[in-house]
Backbone:
Protein backbone atom coordinates (compact mmCIF):
# COMPACT_ATOMS: atom_id res chain seq x y z
CA UNK A 1 0.00 0.00 0.00
CA UNK A 2 2.87 2.39 0.76
CA UNK A 3 4.14 2.04 -2.81
CA UNK A 4 0.72 3.07 -4.20
CA UNK A 5 0.56 6.01 -1.77
CA UNK A 6 4.01 7.16 -2.85
CA UNK A 7 2.97 6.85 -6.50
CA UNK A 8 -0.11 9.02 -5.90
CA UNK A 9 2.01 11.72 -4.25
CA UNK A 10 4.37 11.74 -7.23
CA UNK A 11 1.47 11.98 -9.70
CA UNK A 12 0.02 14.89 -7.75
CA UNK A 13 3.39 16.65 -7.85
CA UNK A 14 3.35 16.41 -11.66
CA UNK A 15 -0.29 17.51 -11.75
CA UNK A 16 0.67 20.80 -10.08
CA UNK A 17 2.62 21.68 -13.24
CA UNK A 18 0.59 20.01 -15.99
CA UNK A 19 -3.08 19.81 -16.99
CA UNK A 20 -4.13 16.28 -17.85
CA UNK A 21 -7.08 13.93 -17.65
CA UNK A 22 -6.80 10.44 -16.20
CA UNK A 23 -8.19 7.85 -18.60
CA UNK A 24 -7.27 4.65 -16.74
CA UNK A 25 -5.92 3.87 -13.29
CA UNK A 26 -6.76 0.90 -11.10
CA UNK A 27 -8.06 -2.20 -12.85
CA UNK A 28 -9.37 -5.57 -11.80
CA UNK A 29 -7.75 -8.54 -13.54
CA UNK A 30 -10.95 -9.03 -15.59
CA UNK A 31 -11.04 -5.38 -16.68
CA UNK A 32 -7.33 -5.42 -17.47
CA UNK A 33 -7.85 -8.43 -19.73
CA UNK A 34 -10.91 -6.86 -21.38
CA UNK A 35 -8.99 -3.71 -22.35
CA UNK A 36 -5.98 -5.66 -23.65
CA UNK A 37 -3.71 -4.85 -20.69
CA UNK A 38 -0.56 -6.86 -20.24
CA UNK A 39 -0.37 -9.67 -17.70
CA UNK A 40 0.93 -8.29 -14.39
CA UNK A 41 -0.04 -4.73 -15.38
CA UNK A 42 0.87 -2.05 -12.85
CA UNK A 43 -2.71 -0.78 -13.22
CA UNK A 44 -3.80 -3.79 -11.14
CA UNK A 45 -1.54 -2.62 -8.30
CA UNK A 46 -2.63 1.05 -8.64
CA UNK A 47 0.89 2.05 -9.67
CA UNK A 48 0.12 2.47 -13.38
CA UNK A 49 -1.85 5.42 -14.72
CA UNK A 50 -2.86 6.57 -18.19
CA UNK A 51 -3.28 10.28 -18.88
CA UNK A 52 -4.02 12.59 -21.80
CA UNK A 53 -2.35 15.98 -21.68
CA UNK A 54 -4.54 19.04 -22.17
CA UNK A 55 -2.30 19.80 -25.16
CA UNK A 56 -2.16 16.32 -26.69
CA UNK A 57 0.91 14.70 -28.18
CA UNK A 58 4.41 13.69 -27.20
CA UNK A 59 5.94 16.27 -24.87
CA UNK A 60 9.58 15.98 -23.79
CA UNK A 61 9.16 18.65 -21.10
CA UNK A 62 6.36 16.60 -19.53
CA UNK A 63 8.56 13.50 -19.64
CA UNK A 64 11.41 15.39 -17.94
CA UNK A 65 9.12 16.75 -15.21
CA UNK A 66 7.80 13.24 -14.58
CA UNK A 67 11.35 11.91 -14.32
CA UNK A 68 12.25 14.63 -11.82
CA UNK A 69 9.34 13.40 -9.66
CA UNK A 70 10.45 9.75 -9.87
CA UNK A 71 7.99 8.74 -12.58
CA UNK A 72 8.52 7.22 -15.98
CA UNK A 73 6.26 8.69 -18.68
CA UNK A 74 5.82 6.33 -21.63
CA UNK A 75 4.15 7.83 -24.70
CA UNK A 76 1.72 5.35 -26.28
CA UNK A 77 0.53 7.19 -29.43
CA UNK A 78 -2.63 8.76 -27.93
CA UNK A 79 -1.80 8.98 -24.21
CA UNK A 80 0.96 8.70 -21.63
CA UNK A 81 1.34 5.76 -19.30
CA UNK A 82 2.89 6.81 -15.97
CA UNK A 83 4.60 4.42 -13.60
CA UNK A 84 7.29 4.59 -10.92
CA UNK A 85 10.80 4.99 -12.38
CA UNK A 86 12.52 1.65 -12.66
CA UNK A 87 9.27 -0.36 -12.40
Residues:
Amino acid sequence: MQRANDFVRRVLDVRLKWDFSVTSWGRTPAHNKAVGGVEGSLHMMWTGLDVVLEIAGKNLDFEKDCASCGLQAIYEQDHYHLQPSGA
User: Anything to note?
Assistant: The domain at 2-84 is CATH 3.30.1380.10 (Muramoyl-pentapeptide Carboxypeptidase; domain 2). The chain has one domain: 2-84.
